[in-house]
Structure formats: structure tokens, C-alpha cells
Inverse folding.
């Protein structure tokens, strides 16, 4: 019998299956990243944009001091090189970026990434909890100064059927004290705050927020742990109109972080999708606690990634 040649679609599908995914993708990207950064001494930075960043390590009385240190890497804004120091908890950094239209958020991510280890290590030795806050970013070439926002740019366009309401410029917000008495709600809010504070753990904290909400829907009459969790997840998905595929997609990435792996294939778009999924789910949970109907909610089916 004569063999029929594979179709182009079949070949493309086979090639796609061969592409590294999950931990293998992380390992490949980590090797490629290390190889590129090892060549940083040869980078031509003459045409790169230059920025000056200021900030603080809080609380003010912690008196953190280190540096100056030099760091280089590759982030959402392409290759970068920066010099950083902290004196009496006041942070100053100069940053050179390959990308000409680097955003304030990308610059902040570079500086925060470089400051995280020394600040955390000093906090570790002092048995304390310190927080790095960046205040101002100045374009050295143009002299233009910009304040660095404390929020992440999520849900920028208005979307009918989403419960999360962006109020990034407001602090006088009505407090849902009644809903706060349901312990899963304030716990989930805290997890979301940590997802922003610790970018390397974003997926894990977003998943923790989803997990604690699911706990609210677990049927107590089911004694078997796995069966109770599965039933609770189904009940949560129905009540909050979210697909199990979206939850599974987030869990697949978060599991690697939870088991000690650095999710090296993480990028801003995947991190943004994870946060959008978690923020919207928590907003819908608040609506659920307030007794609001889910009829106007659109089906939430955000995929975090492979």
C-alpha cells in the first residue's frame, strides 16, 4: 500500500508539538538568557536611552544602605544596564535601555528587580519586612520627569460584562466591611497585593487568590478532600461564570513556581493575563457576596499560557 504524504497542516501540527513547553521552555530560555547576559561587556550602549530613578525603602526608619551596584539583563524593555544604590533608605538609580520607547512600568520593573535581592537580604538579616517604593523617573536626554504609578496597567479599556472597576487614581473608595467578614475575601485581596509586589511569584499569588475563593464554595458534606475541592471548583466556575480551562491554565504555570521553579518564560503579557483573571474573579466574588446576579457577566475564559 502506498503511503500518502502528510498534509501541510499535519506537519505544522507535528512541529508545534515538538516545541518546548513548561519546564523545558523555562530551561531553554534560561540558558539563552544567561548566554546573552554573559556577553554584556560587549554591548554597545552608546545609542540607548538613559533614565534616572529615585525611590525609598519603607519604613523610613529601616535605614537600608548598599551599593553602588551594577546590574544588566533583558526585560520587557529589551536589554538594559543600570547602576543602583541605597543610602539611608533613599534609592537612586541610573538606567540605560536598548528600547527607545520604554514605558515607565518597564523601567520600574528593571529597577525593582535589581533592588529586590539586596533589600530582601537586609530585611532577612534584620528579621523585618521592607517595601521598595519608586517615586520618580527622569529622562536624562530630555529632562522630562514622570511620577512612577504604584498600580499595574490592567483592564485599561472598559469592557461590558467585567465586574472589576479600575479606580487607580482614587483612595476614597467605599469599603465593603460586611463582605470583609467572610475571611476568603480579605485573604484573596492580600494575595492580589502580593502578586504585584513580588513579580516572580505573580502566578502563584494569583492562584492562591483563586484557591481561597474556591474554598468558599467547597461543599462541607463531602468528606473526601479531592472530591470536595473538585466540587467546589465546579460550583465556583458556575457562580462566577469562569471556565475550568482558565483555572487550569493558571494552575499549570503556578504549579511550577509553587514547586520551587523560576518561571523563566514569564513575560509581561502572560503576567498581565494572570492578574486580569485573578482580579476579575475576586471582583465577581465580591458581587456574589453582595447577592448580585451573574446574568450580565461575560464568560471569563482567559488563558495564561502554555
Amino acid at each position: 500500500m502506498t503511503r500518502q504524504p502528510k498534509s501541510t497542516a499535519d506537519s505544522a501540527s507535528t512541529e508545534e508539538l515538538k516545541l518546548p513547553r513548561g519546564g523545558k521552555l523555562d530551561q531553554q530560555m534560561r540558558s539563552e538568557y544567561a548566554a546573552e547576559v554573559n556577553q554584556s561587556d560587549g554591548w554597545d550602549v552608546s545609542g540607548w536611552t538613559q533614565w534616572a530613578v529615585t525611590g525609598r525603602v519603607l519604613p523610613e526608619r529601616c535605614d537600608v544602605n548598599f551599593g553602588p551596584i551594577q546590574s544588566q539583563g533583558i526585560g520587557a524593555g529589551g536589554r538594559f544596564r543600570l547602576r543602583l544604590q541605597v543610602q539611608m533608605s533613599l534609592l537612586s538609580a541610573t538606567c540605560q535601555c536598548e528600547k527607545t520607547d520604554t514605558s515607565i512600568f518597564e523601567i520600574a520593573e528593571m529597577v525593582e528587580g535589581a533592588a529586590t535581592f539586596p533589600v530582601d537580604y537586609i530585611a532577612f538579616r534584620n528579621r523585618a519586612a521592607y517595601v521598595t517604593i519608586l517615586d520618580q523617573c527622569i529622562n536624562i536626554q530630555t529632562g522630562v520627569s514622570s511620577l512612577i504609578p504604584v498600580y499595574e496597567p490592567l483592564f485599561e479599556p472598559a469592557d461590558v460584562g467585567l465586574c472589576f472597576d479600575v479606580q487607580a487614581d482614587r483612595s476614597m473608595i467605599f469599603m465593603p466591611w460586611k463582605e470583609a467578614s467572610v475571611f476568603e475575601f480579605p485573604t484573596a485581596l492580600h494575595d492580589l497585593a502580593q502578586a504585584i509586589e513580588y513579580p516572580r511569584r505573580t502566578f502563584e499569588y494569583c492562584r492562591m487568590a483563586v484557591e481561597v475563593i474556591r474554598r468558599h464554595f467547597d461543599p462541607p458534606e463531602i468528606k473526601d478532600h479531592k472530591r470536595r475541592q473538585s466540587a467546589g471548583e465546579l460550583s465556583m466556575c458556575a457562580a462566577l461564570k469562569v471556565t475550568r480551562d482558565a483555572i487550569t491554565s493558571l494552575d499549570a504555570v503556578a504549579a511550577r513556581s509553587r514547586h520551587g521553579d523560576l518561571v523563566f518564560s514569564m513575560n509581561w503579557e502572560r503576567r498581565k493575563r494572570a492578574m486580569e483573571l485573578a482580579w476579575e474573579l475576586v471582583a465577581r466574588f465580591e458581587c456574589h457576596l453582595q447577592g448580585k446576579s451573574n446574568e450580565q457577566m461575560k464568560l471569563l475564559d482567559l488563558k495564561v499560557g502554555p
About this structure: The beta strands are 49-58, 66-75, 78-87, 90-97, 131-139, 145-147. The chain has a mean pLDDT of 85. Residues 177-289 form one domain. The chain is about 45% helix and 15% strand.
